[in-house]
Write a structure and sequence with these properties.
The complex is a heterodimer of chains A (838) and B (256). Chain A is α+β, with helices and mostly antiparallel strands. Chain A contains 21 helices and 40 strands. In chain A, β22 and β23 form a beta hairpin. Helix content of chain B is 29%, strand content 26%. In chain B, α2 crosses α5 and α3 packs across α4. Classes of the chains: A alpha+beta (838), B alpha/beta (256).
Chain lengths: 838, 256
């Protein structure tokens, strides 16, 4: 055994596909002095890479995951370890066929090759499938299998060959030394390695290793059962590893994949079986490997009948036996995404964990770029380790979500589907009030947010002729016509919105202004009392955040952002504040409640409980100041995400209920109704063309493409300024436009209402591809009750981004006419913003 | 013909065995369970014999309720039915085990006729007592061949072969008989999927037993030196004798 070296530029812990890939990508980017350690023997140290079924379907509903897989396929092909087999998802039910048609539409939007198959088509491709059991299928011809152990070995050895990497196998990491919040060394059983940078690529062991440094990597090991049945008579004459397309029997949550003479049958149908990271047996104690735990047949046997039904002759072969059966360990995370990037808790500690084989090389590349260049080329913000709110890092939360998510692996998951378990982690100070109003809660970052209110049921009758009834169950699922009624009531009178989930950060200190000016695109050297909307860019000009900043004093600012991205925005700010402490960030989210009050009667309502001058001249749009409401001091900010006159009212959490009650009481004569996030986050904002970060705004599109560039660029330097200036000198490759479904003259019973991610095509059904190769798809969708049509946002190439252009949206396999109603940034409702500025 | 196979549920240990905190048992929290390789061959042989000659195969075990898993595995291979002599999970020594098995065999034979062949693994896969087969044969007054590596069944007799010191020993014994077999007797099959599914529907009878005290009782387990340095050569051949005597004396095993 060779001992650990004394120094390393980077220590990578874990020699699975991710750790090996990361070593290679770092080496390719010019890094040297990298050390890769693993407790196990190489090339298969006993982690999840060693027992993976190693197949890659090219499609995911998550654009990030799809992109990572696409990059991984390119890399596996370049390494010579990819075999294209084709893959078919078979449907046993009409409900599943609808899901497959949904996939076709999104796949078309994102350029993935796929087509629907009849049972007869499937029988021709896979003769051992019982076609009487299925109603159809979806073929992904570019599906393939890889040799992930070989891929890892090649990448590791290449990095060694160019002298960038030293590999130390059979070495156990016993500790990570942290001094002043930064990694200093990795202690192993053969010596201590001094280093400033450690990457945890330990799969199911990652939480344990991160804890050595006092940090969290919130994943849990979970069992995925797989058996291998053989020798299969039919496979005797086939050459190589695989000759038939992989079958995903998605209705039974199983897959069947030829592997040489055997058929591997895997299941996501069994009960969720979670394992504590500390309970994984050691290599020496394991009968097979630590991540191939003893098979529990009682969990798997109920699924055997399903597999036999689908492939009765092939799997019913009495001469073929179950030769290998494992409870294989995989990593599950609370939101199903990998965990990548620098730890917000310990400087120099990185994570590249919770990867499947299908995205591992892509993840390795992204993390390497992130480490070397500060930014991965692919947008992986949804996988950023910094995304977790504190409660989301707890074992209880991770386990609860993993347990619930496991059986959804092949499930049909509605885009608005809510979690059942682990709810109620965070409640707004006015929760008791919203609950009494019959709020239907949707969760964001643990917060229970009223999506709509049962108490507004009666409004549906009042606005019946302006509210759309969605005939398709899918379109109406997790939705209520009450949302549209609340929307119209707010636009007619006023709405009261519980915005308790906002993340609120106070940035203060003598260096606060200078620091924020370097981060924000908009000018923040504004008079005290001004409210500024601003994007943040990265160095390449990609969108990193969009939020509002209030200047509360000469050297104090309040930054307000959404809960979903709040932790990422917080980290971005922290990373860009000066290290000298001249500007400090305080997360005051828990101290403040936010109540929104908007609508043409908002001023009347607020005036009824506040004696101050709230006139347009006395309290102009885009300003904020402290006002007295009863016995509370309230920070009122006159801005709007719904396109109406009104305020965001910030009040100490303990005074929130009193403020809510005062406003609700004063509002009754003015038609004030409680309004949910269905209006705030979707219907009202989409009528105004307001962009939503993560959907319409991502690092993949630029500020100009999103239509958020200002008339002039501020003169002081800010992150991304150079890239932004260069971008402004060219016409945008695409523009984010508002489109409206055109249902004039169509049968109301046949109308569909897209929910997002559907393809936007030309009237001839051709994809719209911009000069950067990006295809047009729906980034946001929602009802526009005030304008009488269903609205979509989509980036369109110049040829199509012209008001009046007729296009189609493909929804569940059918095409529906749409029209561009706003080119670029603008509102279809009240385009001149009269309401907000009245 | 009628064949009975006796098996035992034991932990499927990996490379290194971990003991429970009190040192009296193997820590099985993260281990699966299995039977021994000898027993797998006995099960396989029973299935083959009945497949070739007709009749019925029965598998029996004495152990905790979870032993159903091992019985179902035998059923998935092709055994016709199973009997679980269910204990509360306590340790049961070979004498008490044999006594319970004999009672069960007599009972089963009273209902369905004698078993032409009762088969066991050569020794218990965990405790290695080498006793249960012999004790059952003795109690039933049937001939017993141990260490069997090949078996031929004729009318009213079986021919069993086993390794002798310098060659093959061949025994011809009249049935009903008892044999204990060794790994290598055959190559056990893996269960097919229909076999596994069918095993769930095959009859499995549970009988609660309360085995009596046994002469043999384990007081603790100790792991061998992990480095393998536990073995020291005392020499070879006759020259080693003085060293052996000296060691036995040292251990206090020689009467004075």
């Amino acid at each position: 055994m060779s001992g650990a070296p004394a120094d390393a530029s980077t220590v990578i812990i874990g020699a699975g596909i991710v750790g090996n890939g990361l070593a290679w990508h770092l080496a390719q980017l010019g890094e040297t002095g990298i050390v890769l350690v693993d407790k196990g023997p190489l090339p298969n140290p006993g982690g999840s890479t060693g027992h993976a079924s190693n197949f890659l379907f090219p499609f995911e509903h998550s654009r990030m995951m799809l992109s990572l897989t696409a990059d991984s396929v390119v890399q596996y092909k370049a390494l010579g370890v990819f075999t294209e087999s084709g893959g078919i998802e078979v449907a046993r039910t009409e409900t599943r066929m609808q899901e497959l048609r949904r996939k076709v539409s999104t796949a078309r939007a994102w350029g993935v090759d796929c087509h629907l198959l009849s049972p007869e088509d499937i029988k021709k491709l896979v003769p051992y499938v019982n076609d009487e059991l299925i109603v159809g299928g979806l073929s992904f011809p570019t599906t393939g299998v890889v040799d992930s152990l070989r891929a890892g070995t090649i990448m590791r050895e290449r990095a060694q060959a160019i002298g960038a990497l030293e590999v130390v196998g059979n070495v156990e990491v016993q500790g990570i030394d942290v001094v002043d919040g930064r990694v200093r060394a990795v202690r192993t059983d053969t010596g201590t390695i001094r280093t400033e940078r450690v990457v945890v690529c330990c799969g199911v062991w990652s939480p344990r290793i991160a804890r050595m440094a006092g940090a969290h990597i919130p994943l849990t090991p979970a069992v995925h059962q797989m058996v291998s049945v053989g020798p299969i008579g039919l496979f005797a004459g086939t050459e190589g590893e695989i000759s038939y397309p992989i079958i995903r029997d998605v209705d039974t949550f199983m897959y069947e994949r030829q592997h040489g003479a055997d058929m591997e049958v895997g299941s996501y149908a069994h009960r969720p079986i979670l394992v504590e990271p500390d309970d994984i047996p050691s290599i020496a104690e394991s009968a097979l490997s630590p991540t191939e735990m003893p098979f529990t047949s009682e969990d798997f046997d109920p699924q055997l009948a399903d597999a036999l039904d689908l492939m009765p002759e092939l799997l019913g072969d009495e001469a073929a036996g179950v030769r290998y059966a494992i409870n294989g360990l995989i990593s599950l995370t609370p939101d199903g995404h990998p965990i990548l990037g620098p730890s917000p808790e310990v400087g120099g500690l990185w994570s590249a964990a919770a990867s499947w084989i299908k995205e591992a090389p892509g993840i390795a590349r992204a993390v390497a770029e992130w480490m070397v260049a500060g930014r991965p080329e692919l947008d992986v913000h949804e996988a950023d380790l910094a995304r977790f709110h504190p409660h989301q890092r707890t074992r209880a939360h991770v386990a609860s979500r993993a347990r619930e998510a496991f059986n959804k692996t092949y499930g049909i998951v509605h885009p608005s589907e809510q979690w059942v378990e682990g709810r109620g982690a965070r409640r707004s100070p006015v929760h008791a009030r919203t609950e009494a109003l019959g709020a239907v809660y949707f969760e964001t970052a643990g917060w229970e947010r009223p999506q709509w209110y049962a108490s507004n049921e009666a409004l549906v009758d009042r606005y019946a002729e302006r509210i759309v009834t969605r005939p398709a169950e899918w379109d109406a699922r997790w939705y209520s016509p009450i949302v549209e009624a609340e929307h119209l009531a707010m636009r007619d009178g006023a709405g009261l919105v519980d915005l308790g989930a906002f993340c609120v950060f106070d940035v203060s200190g003598p260096g606060a202004l200078a620091a924020l000016e370097r981060i924000a695109v908009a000018r923040l050297d504004v008079p005290v009392g001004r409210v500024v909307y601003t994007p943040f860019l990265d160095e390449a000009g990609g969108m990193r955040a969009d939020l509002t900043v209030m200047r509360l004093g000469t050297s104090s600012f309040r930054v307000v952002t959404g809960a979903g991205v709040g932790m990422l925005d917080r980290q971005w700010l922290l990373d860009h504040l000066d290290r000298d402490g001249s500007a400090q960030l305080a997360d005051v989210t828990s101290g403040w409640a936010t109540i929104g009050l908007w609508g043409p009667r908002a001023r009347d309502v607020l005036s009824a409980v506040c004696a101050e001058d709230l006139s347009h001249a006395g309290f102009p749009y885009g300003t904020c100041r402290v006002i007295e409401v009863g016995d509370s001091e309230v920070l009122a900010s006159r801005i709007s995400y719904v396109g109406e006159l009104g305020w965001e009212l910030y009040v100490p959490a303990e005074a929130a209920t009193a403020l809510w009650d005062r406003l609700a009481g004063a509002g009754a004569p003015h038609g004030l109704v409680p309004v949910g996030i269905g209006v705030y986050g979707t219907t009202a904002r989409i009528e105004k063309g307001y962009r939503s970060f993560g959907h319409d705004l991502t690092p993949e599109y630029t500020l100009c493409e999103a239509g958020l560039e200002r008339r002039a660029v501020k003169h002081t330097d800010f992150v991304g300024r150079t890239a932004h200036l260069a971008e402004r000198s060219r016409p945008p490759a695409a523009r984010l436009c508002t489109l409206a479904l055109d249902y004039t003259g169509t049968d109301p019973g046949s109308r569909r209402y897209p929910l997002g991610q559907e393809a936007i095509l030309t009237e001839d059904g051709e994809p719209l591809v911009d000069a950067k190769g990006r295809r047009s798809y729906v980034t946001s969708a929602g009802a526009g009750p005030s304008v009488g049509s269903h609205l979509l946002l989509a980036y369109l190439p110049p040829s199509a981004s012209v008001t009046g252009t007729r296009l189609v949206v493909e929804c569940m396999g059918e095409r529906y006419p749409v029209r561009v109603v706003v080119e670029g940034n603008g509102a279809v409702f009240d385009p001149t913003n009269q309401r907000m500025r009245s | 013909m009628r064949v009975l196979v006796g098996i035992k549920r034991v932990p499927a240990v990996g490379g290194r065995i971990v003991l429970s905190a009190d040192g009296t048992a193997i820590d099985t929290r993260f281990l699966g369970s299995t039977t021994g390789p000898h027993e797998e061959c006995a099960v396989e042989e029973a299935v083959r014999l009945v497949a070739a000659r007709g009749g019925e195969s029965v598998v029996v075990t004495l152990g905790p309720p979870e032993s159903e898993e091992q019985l179902r595995y035998a059923l998935s291979i092709g055994i016709d039915r199973a009997v679980l002599l269910e204990t509360a999970g306590q340790e049961v020594g070979p004498r008490a085990t044999a006594a319970e098995l004999v009672g069960a065999i007599r009972d089963l034979e009273g209902n369905g006729g004698p078993f032409d062949l009762v088969m066991f693994g050569n020794e218990a896969p965990d405790s290695g007592d080498f006793q249960v087969g012999v004790r059952v044969a003795e109690a039933l007054a049937r001939p017993c061949v141990t260490g069997v590596k090949a078996l031929e069944v004729g009318d009213g007799e079986v021919v069993a072969r086993r390794d002798g010191g310098r060659g093959m020993e061949i025994y011809r014994v009249a049935t009903p008989a008892v044999v204990t077999v060794r790994e290598g007797l055959n190559l056990p099959r893996y269960p097919s999927l229909p076999g596994r599914l069918g095993a769930k529907r095959k009859p499995l009878e549970r009988r609660t037993v309360e085995p009596g005290a046994d002469g043999l009782r384990s007081v603790g387990l100790r792991l061998p030196d992990p480095d393998g340095r536990g073995a020291v050569s005392l020499g070879s051949g006759a020259e080693a004798a003085p060293a052996v005597v000296e060691l036995l004396d040292e251990l206090g095993l020689l009467a004075r």
